[in-house]
Amino acid sequence: MVRFVLFSIFLVIPGLFSDFLLAQTESIPNDTPLKVGVAGSPPFSKFNQQTFEGISVELWQEIAATTNLRYEFIAQPGVKVGIDQVVAGELDILIGPVSITAERFQKVAFTQPYFNAKIGLLISGHSTSVWSRIRPIFQVAVISSVGGLFFILFIVGNLIWLAESRRNPEQFPQHYVRGVGNGMWFALVTLTTVGYGDKTPVTKTGKAITSLWMLITMVAASSLTAGIATVMTLLLSTDATTEFTQPQDIRGKQIAVVSGTTGEKWAKNYQARLLPSPNLDQAVDRLKSGQAQAVMFDVPALKYYLYQNPEAPFKIANLSVAFEDYGFVLPLDNDLIRDLNIAIIKFKQSGRLEEIIEQEIQGDFDNQ
C-alpha cells in the first residue's frame, strides 16, 4: 500500500510541476520592444541621433499607441539596407517612404498602402534669357562658318571682276575695290536667289563662273535656310526644358538617382545614363554641378526639397514617370500585419491619415 501511494505521488508530481511551469510562462508578458527601422527621405522620415519625425513616423506612433505596441526606433542608411535588415531578422518592421513592388514582395510583406506617390524629375528651373537663346549664333563654329561664307563671296567676287571688268566696266568697274565690291554683291544676291538683275555678266567666262556658282548656291541656300530656322526656334522658344515632356525623353539622358530606390529602377527601365548617389542631397548636387540633366525621385520628397530650398534654381518637370504606393515592411508570415492593416484602414476612413500628411507638410512649409 505504501509503495502504491509513493508510486502515485511519483507520477502526479512531475505533471503538476510541468503545469506550474507552463502557467508561469504564459503569465510572463512579452516586454521586448519591437525593433522599428526608419529609412527614406523627408517629409516621410526625418531623424537624427535623438529625434524621429515625419509622416511615416507619426502614423506609426499613433498606430502603436492604439494597438499597445512597444517599440524602439533604429535609423537606417537607406531603404534597401532597411529591407535587407528585415529579411535578416535584425528589424521587426521598416517604416518610411518604402514603395510596394513585386520584386520586394518576394522577400518581405507589406501592409496596406498608406500613401500613393508619383515618381518624377527635378530639372533646372532657370528662365532662359535672351542672351542664352542667341548665344549659339556667336559660337566659334557659327562664326567660322559665316567667315568662310564671306571668304567664298570674296573669291567669287574677284573671279567675276576679273572676267567682266574689261568688257563690262559699267557694272564691274576696273577700280579694284568698287569692282570686287560689285562682284561680291552679285555673288550674294545669287546665293540668296534674289537676283535683282542690276548686275549681269556678259562674257563667256563670267557666265561660266556664274553658272557654277548657281549650282553651288542651290545647296548652300538650303543649308542657310535650315540654319536660320534653327536659330529662330531658339529665339522664340519659351521653355528651356521641353526635352522632358514624356518618359521616353529620359532615354540617353544623364539622370541622377538615389541608389537602391525605385527611381533608379525606373531610370534604368527608360534607358537613361544613371548617376547613382547615396542620398537625395548628393543627387541634387550632381544637377547643380551640371553632371546630371535631371534627378529622378519620389515627387513628395522633391517638393519637400523645394520647400526647404526656395532659392534653388530647380523645378519639377511636368510629367509622371510612374505611380507607386507606400507601405510598412514586415517579415513574411508575420502575425502583426493584420492588426496594422486594420489600424491603417481605420485611420484612412476617419480622415486622420490625411490630417497627419497635411500637418507634416504644412508644418514644414510654415517653418520656412
TrEMBL record:
Pfam families listed in its UniProt record: Ion_trans_2, SBP_bac_3
Residue ranges of domain Solute-binding protein family 3/N-terminal in the record: 33-364
Keyword line: Glycoprotein, Ion channel, Ion transport, Membrane, Receptor, Transmembrane, Transmembrane helix, Transport
Record has Transit peptide as a keyword: no
Gene Ontology cellular component list: membrane
Residues of the Ionotropic glutamate receptor C-terminal domain: 33-363
Location in the cell: Membrane
TM stretches of this protein: 137-163, 175-196, 208-236
GO molecular function terms listed in the Swiss-Prot or TrEMBL record: ligand-gated monoatomic ion channel activity
Recorded topology in the membrane: Multi-pass membrane protein
Source superkingdom: Bacteria
Protein name: Extracellular solute-binding protein, family 3
